[in-house]
Every structure is written in C-alpha cells, then in structure tokens.
Amino acid sequence: MSTLPCTTLSLPHPPNNTSYTTTPTTLFKSLSSSTNLSHLKQLHAQILKSHPDPSHSLLSRLLLSSLPLSPSLHYPLSLFHQLPNPPTHLCNKLLRHLSRCRHPENALFVYEKMRQQGVSLDRFSFPPLLKAVSRVSALAEGVEIHGLACKLGFDSDPFVQTVLVRMYAACGKVMDARLVFDKMPSPDVVAWNIIIDGYCQSGHYDIAFNLFEEMRNSDVKPDEMILSTMLSACGRAGKLSYGKAIHEFIEENDIVVDSHILSALIAMYAGSGSMDLAQKLFEKTSARNFVVATAMVSGYSKVGRVEDARKIFDQIVQKDLVCWSAMISGYAESDQPQEALRLFSEMEVSGLRPEPVTMLSVISACAHLGALDQAIWVHLYVDKNGFGGALSINNALIDMYAKCGSLERARGVFEKMPRRNVISWTTMISAFAMHGDASNALNYFSQMKIANVEPNAVTFVGVLYACSHAGLVEEGRQIFASMVNEFNINPKHKHYGCMVDLYGRANLLREALEVIETMPLAPNVVIWGSLMAACQIHGEIELGEFAAKQVLELEPDHDGALVFLSNIYAKERRWEDAAMVRKTMKNSGISKQRGCSRIELKNEVHEFLMADRSHEQADQIYEKLNEVVSEVKQVGYSPNTCNVLVDIEEEEKKELILWHSEKLALSFGLISSKKDSCIRIVKNLRICQDCHTFMKLASKVYDREIIVRDRTRFHHFKHGYCYCKDYW
Ligand code: ZN
Ligand code: ZN
C-alpha cells in the first residue's frame, strides 16, 4: 500500500472583504453549520491563516463536517492524512463513508494508517472496513484483517462474522465463507442470504438449495431478498418445480412481490422455457417497473422471441444498460446481427457507455455477420473506449476477424495481446484451421505448448480439423494419441469426427470405419456423414450406401444422404429404391433452411436469397449474372445439377442452380465494388459443388479474389483455384 491518493491541498484564499472570527468556539459553530464544501474550505484557509498549526480537535471537527459534503471523500481523506493519531471513532466514521463511496479501496489507506500509528480498532471498525474490502475483492488484505479481528477477539461478534462471510463470498472463496458461517451460533436472514448467494454465484446450486432448507428448519423467516436469490438460482439450475414451490410459498404467505422477486420469477420461467407463465405474471402485475420489463426483454431474447422482446423494449422509457444489452444480445444470438449492430449505435447515441458484456455481444454479432468493415469499426471502438485490455474481448476480436475473413487482422490482435490464455491460443489455431492454413495451425499449436499453456478439448478439435483438411494423416494420428495419452482428454464426438474425416479424405476408408467401430460413444450424424462423403469422393459405393443409411436412421430427412442414395440408385437402375428415396425427399423439402448470402459494400450489408428479386438493382444483377455465366462457360463451366434436391425437370434444375444466393451476391459484388478489391460473401449454409466451381472460374475470368465463408469454413478463390483444394 502506498501513500494517500491526494496528499496536497489546494486551498482557496479567504476573500479579503470577509472577516472571520477566530475564537475556537465560533469557529466550531461555523464549521458545524457549513452546508457546502467550498464554504468549508474557506473556513479551513482562515483557520490556517490564524493558526498555522491548527489544533487536533479543530482538524477532527473539520474532517467530520466535511464527510457528508464531499461525495468523492478526497478532501476528508487529505485532512485525515494531516491528522496525527486520529481517534478510533473518527476513523470508523471515515471508514463507514468510504465503504459506501465510489472508491472503497481508500478504506485500506485508512486501515494502514491506523495500524502504523497504533490507533486501536474496535468492533465498529471491522464491518465498514471489510465491506470496503468485499467491494474491491481484496482477498489478501481481507485475510489479514480477519487475522487481526481474531487476535482482538472480535471474530465472535455476529456483525463482524457476517461481513467476513460476505468478504470471502465476494472474493470467490465460498469455502472460507462457509467456515466463518458455520461458527455463527444463530445466523440471521442476512447472513443466510450471503452464504446461499455465494454458493449460487460459484455454481454450487445443490448446496444452496440444501442450505435454504436448513434455514427454513432453523425458524429463520425468509425475506424478499433471499427469496429472489433462490428464484434466480432455480432459474439458472433449471429447478422449475422447486421454483414453483417457492412461488406458491410467496403467495400463501402474502409476501410482498417486489420488483426483484418479480423479475427473478420471470427470469426463472423464461429460463425454463415457460415464457407463457412469465408473460401471465408480467401482464397481471402492478409493480411493472423497468427492472421487471427488462427481465421480460431478456426472457424473450433468450428463447429467441426477439419480436416480442422488442415490443416491450420499445415501451421502456428509461432503458438502462442491462436492458440495452439484453436486446442487443437477443438479436446477436437469433441470427439478426445487423439489427444488433443498429441497436448498438442507437444505444451509443443515447449516451450510455457499454459494459464489456455488451461489447462481447456486439463483437459476436459482427463475427456472425462476417462484414469486415463493420468489424474494423467495432475494433476501433473497442480501442477508443478502453476495452482493449480485456482478455475476453481480445479473444472475441480474434474470432471476429477470422470469421470476417481477415486472418491477418486476427493474427494482429493475437500478437499484440499482453496476456493469452488457452482460449486465445485455441481461437487462433481454429482460425488457421478454418482458413485451411494447416501449417500455421500446427506451428501455433507447438508454440502454445512451449508457452506452457495446456491445450483443452476444443484446441484439439481445431488442430485435428486442420490436419484432416490438409491431408496430414500421420500428424493427425500422433496428435490424437497425444491428446489421450499426454493430456488425459477423453475424445468427444467432434474429435472422432475429425479422425474419420482425416482417414476418409486420404482414402483410408478401412481405418475410418475402424474409428467408428471402436469408438466408445455412439456415432452421430456428422460422423456417419463424414464417412459417406469420403466414400462419395472415392467412389466407394457399397460402404457409402451403408453409411448413408446410418445417417438416415438418425436423421430421416438428411438431404446429403438422400441425394447420395438417389444418385447411386439411379446409376444402378434400382428403380424401386430410387422411388422410395424420392418420396422422402419430396416430404422433407418443406422444412429446409433457405440459403442466404450476404455481401458488404460501403458499410452496408446486402442480403440475397435463392432466386431473389427483391434487391433494388435486381435487373442489373440478373443481367450481370447472365454475362458471368456465359463468360465462365467459355472456360469450361457447365451447371452441375447432381446435388439439387428437388424432383423437377433437368432444365429447371439448371435455372435454379444458377440463381443460388451466392451467385447473385457475386454478380452484385462485380457490379458495385472496385475492380481490384476482394469480394467477400457470407453464406448461411454449406456452399454447393456447383457454386464452388463457379466461384473458382469467376475468380480466374475476372481476376478477382473471392472469399466465401460458408457454414463451416472459408473458401479463398484466386486465379481459378480455391485454398481448400476442393476438400471441404
Ligand atoms: Zn450453390
Ligand atoms: Zn473451397
């Protein structure tokens, strides 16, 4: 601990025309009647003029009078600094004010001075001091103060015990909090609430529920505070029936349902998917303030009902940060990233400063949108507003840039980070993997180990993905073995999926099948799908048919498997089988997600659906598309309809495939962007074979770099090639 934060005093000179009486009694009187700080400072200056060495009692008086007048407490603190051997009661008063002010850490300076000058602490010193410590989570100091309280025999005082429980809980040391709590002979409802909340905050809901039962058996009556703590715990732990029982208890005992209880109830019902119950509560309540409305906004957002959330959001007059953040993340998570970003700018205009959590939603919206210009803007905003130091924000920025197609910028953020954790390394490695840069993925993986950061299960997914897409069979095999043997990580579906993919792509189909047959988990759709795709690439019909049937067993309308089977059956003239598949295809066509491509131009994002004519430049776009089609046909393109999943005539299929959303986005990009700029497209589904070929040829004909991000990875098209080497 260093010296006091403000040790020098700038004092105003007393005005010349005012004359102050200097007898101690009148001075004391004027001090007590002082109602603002500048008046008090004038008196102080006057005192110094007539008494260069003011008495102890005069300074103490001045300090006491200044406490309620100085919200920042800078002035009282500087007076305190000049005061030798301050009396305990004065220190306690100052501590009490400090424990409630904006800079509770200054309480520690007071404590330090008390210790240095041998001022004794009494039972009233500890509660405000420990409260301040809790607020700044200063565990080391808290432990020291706890030791002193024991030495002085105050550790059995219930007030001191309660603040000790609070201090340990606030510092995340719930076990230590429990040790103190268990020594309390008869804890009151406040102490119970602190310890129960401590367990909830650290995710130990079962212990929290047991303690709540224990409390009720010990005849302590629950108050509003603890009831809302319990209700939020029920919401987060998914204990709806327990929460309903508490709700009944509240109604039976005529407990006043304040806005905290009400929002906890709403959050609980929303969290367990019973949004209708939450809605009923909300509609019949009279305590409908903005806290409650905000709970409704987050509830609707969480269950994906953003329109309903927005209706309530628009009705709230005084929106706070929690409310804005809930609405923004609602949009970000329900595939409306543009709306999330629009709302964020609105919030900014309203003058509210975002919190890191809001920033994370905005960054994730940007990543989702895949728009590089917006991403650069968000990054600038992050730096300008001082969020750039936070680890989680930087990790999110890496992911955002990677998903917006700029591996370089992702790497730039990573390299500049002062501190990196396993998430930072994993995000960077996955970014390389997603972009098909296997050698850097492996390179960073070894650097990570050199930096003594232990990889986790997600890291291995990234590394194995990189290996499988680059055909690095031996490396992948070794890494998989090291994951199990060296790092004791149990492989999950994703790891096995990568291994099946690794062998499958390398035409080691026997090994791929062996992975599936020996894995201890039940293979899922993705794993059988990988094997099927490998069989398709390598023309292994028999095994492919088997894999496709396994896929359909798990997901009867899986379009890849249906298309694959119908192609085999048609080729082998197995008409009955082919008819069966076609029937399923017809029935499943309805529920399929529509393809959608986005392209960003001059800070605006344009969206295209398949055969979309809603764009204002639709005519020009289709005209350009016709031109592109005839250009690429000259270098060998012919529409590849074998993946089209509709039962229609071949000619119509050709039309449909030419109107795929990414082709429309490309045509628009070619009309509207600068000649040498890179065209970046984001597609919500996997890019189809035909569009992949089309993009390759277009990149050659127009000499343009085209980057398409599809659901799983990036395709960089340049000079007629794709970085994925047609492996995806
Ligand atoms: Zn396509
Ligand atoms: Zn590709």
Helical percent range? 55-70%
Total strand segments: 6
Briefly, what CATH class of the domain at 186-318? Mainly Alpha
In what range is the share of β-strand residues?
under 5%
Q: Report the span from N to C terminus.
A: 58 Å
**Structural class by secondary-structure content:** mainly alpha
Radius of gyration: 34 Å
In CATH, the topology of the domain at 186-318 is named: Serine Threonine Protein Phosphatase 5, Tetratricopeptide repeat
Notes on the structure:
Among the domains are: 186-318, Alpha Horseshoe (Serine Threonine Protein Phosphatase 5, Tetratricopeptide repeat), CATH 1.25.40; 491-592, Alpha Horseshoe (Serine Threonine Protein Phosphatase 5, Tetratricopeptide repeat); 596-722, no CATH class. Helices cover 65% and strands 4% of the residues. Residues 1-21 have low confidence and may be disordered. It is elongated. The chain is built from 38 helices and six strands. α11 (189-201) packs parallel to α13 (224-237), α29 runs antiparallel to α30 and α35 (618-634) packs across α38. The chain has 728 residues and is mostly helical. It has a six-stranded mixed beta sheet, with helices on one face. Bound molecules: zinc ion (ZN) (2 copies). One zinc ion binds at residues 660, 662, 688, 690-691.
